Amino acid sequence: MPTSTSVLAIENKMISENGVQQVELLNGVEDLYGGIIIDIEEAMESEAFTFSLSASVLQWKQQGKRAVWIKLHIQLVNLVEPSVKEGFRYHHAEPDYLMLVNWISDSTSTIPENASHRVGIGAFIVNEKREVLVVQENNGKFKGKGVWKFPTGVVNEGEDISIAAIREVKEETGIDTEFVEVLAFRQSHRSYFTKSDLFFVCMLRPLTFYIQKQDTEIKAAQWMPFNEYAAQPFVQKHDAFSSVADVCLTKLETEYVGFSPVPRTTASGKTSHLYLSRRDLNNLAPEHGQSEFPG
């Protein structure tokens, strides 16, 4: 999505059409990629908006701008149709606004597509008795099938994978946990409103053991011997599930090392997490002049 840098000095500027009619240009903000962002929050008449939009786009095209983005707040539905008629298309929608875009340059469009993936987690949690925390769901494709599965959920916007895993387990089962590592991940396509799906199998360490399930989404929850979980006909029949069970068993019985989150700072100063396998890494890093990874 474009990032604002400086406001164009076009507010209240008037232009002439055919030397007679004057049209007020729309306020715009330049982005980092040669485009313009229009953020419309207040109501406008559709006809006046159409004239202003057409004149503004014409001027921005003459100035060599590449694209125009229109952010319409949810109550301004009357401005959607005139925007589309002026060549704009939907890019994405959020609960409180709709974003439209129009590539106005003669060059090939470089507009990024809307977010293409949803991110989910599955939580592998084992107690000292080698029992795994499993649930049966009240909703979705597993409803009424008697399948015991790991607690799962979707990562929220702005939420780290590790935090999402801890949150989902707490919400579904009442169990407090701490994050250990990502054991594996899977990518699939056209799974949710045609979006692709990234699913991370996360190992967590239980801090509490008494289950208090969420009644709305969870039909049942329990600690189950791992071998009993892995032997379920559904797990054995579907290799997506049996492969995950194999990875988890390998983790229990060998020195299999997954990916642990290491906090890092991006070039823009934000905190992010680099997920990596840290075994032997600190021994190797100094030889290459790299800083050590904690843990």
UniProtKB/TrEMBL annotation:
CDD domains: NUDIX_ASFGF2_Nudt6. InterPro entries: Nudix_hydrolase (IPR020476), NUDIX_hydrolase-like_dom_sf (IPR015797), Nudix_hydrolase6-like (IPR003293), NUDIX_hydrolase_CS (IPR020084), NUDIX_hydrolase_dom (IPR000086), Pre-Nudix (IPR040618). GO terms for molecular function: ADP-ribose diphosphatase activity; metal ion binding; NAD binding; NADH pyrophosphatase activity. Keywords: Hydrolase, Metal-binding. Residues 116-248 form the Nudix hydrolase domain. Belongs to the Nudix hydrolase family. This is Nudix hydrolase 6.
